[in-house]
Structure formats: C-alpha cells, structure tokens
Amino acid sequence: MQKIFITPDICLTLRGMTEIRVDENFSPRFNLWHIWVSKVHDIDFIPPLMTTTTDEEILSLFREQSTKSNGFTLLMNKYNERIYWHIRRLVVSHDDAQDILQETFINVYNGLDGFAGDSGLYTWLYRIATNECLRLFRNRKKFLVSEKEVNKKLINQLYESSAIDAEEILLKFQEAILRLPEKQQLVFNMRYYDELTYEEISQVLNSSVATLKTNYHYASSRIKEYMLKDS
C-alpha cells in the first residue's frame, strides 16, 4: 500500500470522486488526513525514511580532510531522495530533476565548508535546490511567452511521464498543483509534501510567515476548486 497525505478539505473532495480507503487518524501537527491507495504511481511523491546519522556528525566528518568524502556520502545518502522528489515535483521531468539534483549537490559540496548553521542543514539544501529549479524556470521563460506556458509544458510532461494506469484523481491533483502560480506551488509543495514548517519555508524562500500562510491558503483553495471542477 502507498501512502499519500491530503488536507481535510481536499480529502472530502476526493472521497466523493474515487474509491479510496480513508484512515481517520488525524495528524494534528500538519493538519493532514492519511489516505491509502492500492497502487504505487510515478506521481505519488513520498520520500523514504531518512538515515539516523545526525547533521552534526555529517558536518564534523566533512570538515576533516581525512573523512570529508565519507561525510559527503552520508549527507547524500540522507537527503538525496528527499531533495530529488522536492525538485521532481517542481520540474516534473525525471531528467531535469536529475540534472538539477547534480547541480545542487555540486553547490552543496562547494559551499558546505562555509555553512554557518544559521538554519537547519536540510533547510539550506532546500534553498539551494529551489534556487536551481527557479533558475531553470527563468531560462524556460526566455523561450516561452508567459508563466502559463511554462505550467502548460509541465502539465504535458506530467501526463507523458505517468504510468498508463495511473489513477485519474491523482493526476488531476498533480495538475491542480502545477496550475498554481510559481510562489504558491513552492509553498504548497514544501508545506504539504515536505512537511516543512512555515518558519523553515521562510528561510528557504526569504519570505514572511504571514505571506507564506496566505499563499498556502490560496493554493489549497485553488486546488480544491479545481478538484471539484467537472466532478
């Protein structure tokens, strides 16, 4: 069984549209419902469990020349999958995600000695990965007229890269996210999928918590509206 996380309002929408079993265990910290579906799909983005090596241990190993390589390997083992799926949700294409992941870890390796610890290590990683995604979007906008065209391209890639038997409801949910404005997409993905706090997202995007909460509210409302459309 594969687990997805859905907010309560979206959950109520989905329950009326598809046959899925809802586990009524409520998660108070993130205000989420647990929904289970019977198949594993390409669009179902749940990162694996992280390793138990602490960030402090990783940084300590990395800063010693004799253990630098081992420290960086542990960092990649701990965060590679989580950062990959964060990128993949934004750029959709596996090939683009792999390229950006590689650039992200090159930047991480080159900058880790200067990491001051003002934020969590994973927050710092997310900021680097997000900036690489935004750089890709800026490059695409040079050749496309508008943000809508960029989003349309991503939606087309979503359907091209998904399994033929992928649940229509899950594809529609991902499409709803891709139709959001760029800032709302970023906030929604980091809050909803990556389960970052607003304070952590604020460090990634250099935006106020109040603004982020507003963005998440509008994103959730737009997704719900799109999910109800033609249902």
Largest sheet: 3 strands, antiparallel
Number of helices: 10
Shape: globular
Could you say which structural class the secondary elements and strand pairing correspond to? Answer: mainly alpha
**Succession of helices and strands:** EHEEHHHHHHHHH
The total count of strands amounts to 3
Radius of gyration: 18 Å
What fraction of residues sit in β-strands? 5-15%
Straight-line distance between termini: 25 Å
Name the helicity range: 55-70%
Strand order of the largest sheet: 1-3-2
**What is the residue-mean pLDDT, rounded to a whole number?**
75
List low-pLDDT spans.
1-51
Keyword list:
231 residues, mainly alpha, 3-stranded antiparallel β-sheet, 10 helices, 3 strands, globular, disordered N terminus
Write the SSE topology.
Elements lengths: L1 E5 L1 H8 L5 E7 L4 E6 L17 H8 L5 H24 L2 H18 L9 H21 L5 H15 L6 H11 L3 H12 L4 H8 L3 H20 L3
Antiparallel strand pairs: 1-3, 2-3
Structure in words:
This protein has 231 residues and is mainly α. Helix content is 63%, strand content 8%. The chain is built from 10 helices and 3 strands. The protein has helices spanning 8-15, 55-62, 68-91, 94-111, 121-141, 147-161, 168-178, 182-193, 198-205, 209-228; strands at 2-6, 21-27, 32-37. Strands 1-3-2 form a 3-stranded antiparallel beta sheet. A hairpin with a 4-residue loop joins β2 and β3 (32-37). α6 packs antiparallel against α7 and α7 packs across α10. It is globular, with a radius of gyration of 18 Å. The two termini are 25 Å apart. The relative contact order is 0.13. The model is unreliable at 1-51 (pLDDT under 50).
